[in-house]
Amino acid sequence: MWTTLSVFILCFFSPVCCVFQKLYCTLSDSCDCDFKPNIRDLEWDLYKNVYGQHLAQEIVSEEVARFLQEKNPERPLVLSFHGSSGTGKTLVSSMLGGHLYGSAMSSPYVHQFIPTLHFPLANRVDEYRTELKTWVQGNLTECARSVFIFDEMELMPPGVVDVLEPFLGPFHVVFSTNYRKAIYVFISTTGEEVINRVTLENRQAGRDREEIRLSELQDAIAQTVYNSSHSGFFQSSIIQQKLITAFVPFLPLTRLHVERCARSQLCQQGHCQRADVVEAVGGDMSYSPTQGRFFSTTGCKAVPAKINLFL
Ligand SMILES: *[C@@H]1O[C@H](CO)[C@@H](O)[C@H](O)[C@H]1NC(C)=O
Ligand SMILES: *[C@@H]1O[C@H](CO)[C@@H](O)[C@H](O)[C@H]1NC(C)=O
User: Using the 8-state DSSP alphabet, how is residue 175 labeled?
Assistant: First the structure.
């Protein structure tokens, strides 16, 4: 009888551990891989180190916690991050991957896809689809708890990710693998116009940023990614079938947030007391719109470069 304990003992004493573990995973359908989720740490990291993103903090904490509570989830967790560059989308996706596995983002079970690297040519969509399906299927056979991160979805040739539709839905067994424990994160700037407009209107109306609700943005983002030809989800069945668990908006950042980014990075470099540099970095960013100059046009993206300039 294969039990988790016997696998651990084998792993401890035997150099052929890997082979046994793989066999165990295949047979038992309950393989943990290197899966050591720490929701508390994820929540803490999100609240402490992500600035100005109350929606992302709430949605990611809640959805991940809910998903991991279920021993046999009915469908995978599918999150789609949207917002302008420098607002923290990649940071949050790294935190998510980083608090799920023992070896964090270098875990072999966190898979990152970058269109310009993996899927650069629009005329090779058919090839890419076959490749992507083979990869995801292979990765899920190795570890049902795999995480797939698709960066720069605005540069993904339309049609490629549609091949994942059967993996994302609530169907029971597809291609004879349990794929419902997987986590997918899609990242794009698509939808930034509507997010930035709603945030600006909210500000002009004198309301708190934290009063912005997901319900004000969710449908508009879904429609925009579906309608926009510069979107990996252009006319995608994944959107039509409503297979995205949640759209996660990242709001444009103010000078206050940029300065918090600068302070935190300075501290990491051992320069916590350099308020002058914080101030200089905040003052050197460009802000929009012309009337009001409320939001940093590059979020926190240029902060490390500016710190080097002023330190
Ligand atoms: C898993 O996905 C990666 C791409 O991230 C691919 O290179 C690799 O071959 C896949 N593994 C399996 C077992 O299919
Ligand atoms: C998307 O397209 C549909 C149908 O053409 C239209 O009704 C809707 O307003 C569009 N939405 C956006 C946000 O462009």
Answer: T
b/e map 182-207, b = 16+ CB within 10 Å: bbbbbbbbbbbebbbebbbebbeeee
Task: Note the pTM of the prediction, 2 decimals.
Answer: 0.88
In this structure, the number of other CB atoms found within 10 A of the CB of residue 215 comes to 7
| DSSP code, position 114 | -
Whether the pLDDT of residue 103 is over 50: the answer is yes
**β-bridge pairing 77-83 and 246-250:** parallel
What does the alpha-carbon distance between residue 62 and residue 82 come to, in Å, rounded to a whole number?
18
Q: Would the CB of 224 count as within 6 Å of ligand 2? A: yes
* φ, ψ at 157 (rounded to 5°): -60, 130
186 and 96 both lie in a single domain: yes
- Mutation test residue for ligand 2: of 190, 227, 230, 247, the one with most atoms within 8 Å of CB: 227
Could you list the residue range(s) of the whole structural domain that residue 295 is in? 255-310
Q: Nearest ligand, CA of residue 227? A: 2
Token pair, residue 9, equals 């003992």
Q: Average of pLDDT values for 82-98?
A: 96
Domain count, the chain: 3
Considering the domain architecture, whether residues 53 and 196 belong to the same structural domain is answered as yes
Asked if 166 and 132 touch (Cβ cutoff 8 Å), the reply is no
- Residue nearest to ligand 2 atom 9, measured at CA: 223
- Residue 47's CB is within 10 A of a number of other CB atoms, namely 12
d(CA 307, CA 311): 6
Of residues 30 and 157, which shows the higher confidence score?
A: 157
Q: Is the CB of 129 under 6 A from ligand 1?
A: no
- β-pairing, 295-296 vs 287-288, is antiparallel
